[in-house]
Write the structure tokens for this entry.
Amino acid sequence: MATVDFLGALGAGSDIDSKSLVESLVAAERAPKEAALNAKVDKADLKISAYGQVLSSLSSLSTTFSGLNDADDFNDYTLNVSGALTSAGSTAYSVSGTADVTAGLTELGVTSVATKDRWVSDRGYAATTTSINGGSTITLGITIGSTTTNVTVATATPQGIVDAVNAANLGIDASLVNTGASSDPYKILFEGQLGAANAFTVTDDATSGTVLNMTSRLSTASNAELVVNGVAVERSTNTINDVVTGMTLSLAGATASTSVISVARDLTGAESRIRALVDAYNVMEASFDNLTDPESTAELGGIFSGDTSFRVIRDRVKSLFLDQSSTATSNLSYLNDIGITFTRSGTLEIDDDRLTAALNNNFADVVSIFSADTNNQTNFGEANRGIAGDAIVTLNDMMAQDGTIVTQTTALSNRVDEYRDDLADLDRRMTQIYNRYLGQFTAMETAIDEMNSLRDYLKNQLESLPLTNKNK
């Protein structure tokens, strides 16, 4: 079937640029519809970006709340030690605090530190492989407390003895010491564990040749002896964590006199975390103000202006700072009670005097309203968690996959897909309209060509007649 060059034919029979006219007509019909759809896509994309900013703000706020979620978060102390010196002037002990430490003074004297039994062979050996007992098997009798364990040494050498004792896993460390002596420099050293209960002795049945005599005791196992607030205490270790509540003592020597451990509650940590919470909210609020301000020229400015869904999110976050604590006390119930209030502009402010008074005079109540006076709270269940714990659960719900923000973002993404489908449909419709106009103008050009041909024919016929007015 023959084809027609419509585009080449356009304009052939008239002075009209038909191709440009068709394109202009289609463009005029496309432009407003395409602009409207693109505007919807752009706005939805901006809202998706804005919701990403909202998620980031809520995540930061949740992180700040987590610093006030546990009772231990408020357990900051300053710890000072005076007089913890030996008679030689060195440090007799060090101390570290745990979350359970309590304020107060502790008098502590270290009478002696825990020691180990240490035995060394009476004689030395020329080499680590020197034959003992004529190379015959040796049986060592190692007695710890009232229990004796026989250790068989098949390789009767200094190294063989060390290996056999270590392999027995009795809590005794065996090693070889090179004394540097010009002859027989190697001696066998046995070292037990700290504490009087770990004292031990060693016997052997070597009878011939070079024998083994572990009879030289370098030190005797003993317990650490302390006097804590006038009470005598013994422990089998030099690392002690059950004498002073919340403290771990690391003993190094006897004190020359009674020392004093002073523990005072440090309120600066709790105060700084409370202030950080207020700052985090105000940073978030500034971001939200920009998102709702129709006159804002900043990035994403005014994108949520008049958006009721975003208003619900904003109000829900604000309620975290207005609602009564689920673990209120008789003295404190609201953040307002510790000096945290909203200004007319919607930001939070702190009354320094009221916050200081609450921390100094009602510290336990502050801990309770924030953390329910508990640690490691779960996000599941219906338990009262305090202001911080309840806020974390609420924020997590809002940020969850089935929460408000993700749901809104998903809906917007679906709308963008629909708008882009509409743009594709618009393209198809405009192509159809273009082809229709093209056909109509082609038909017009064809008709004009036919009329022009008829005109020329008639003119020629008339001019060829024999009698005309011009011949008279």
Q: What stands out?
A: Residues 32 and 65 are 49 Å apart (CA to CA).
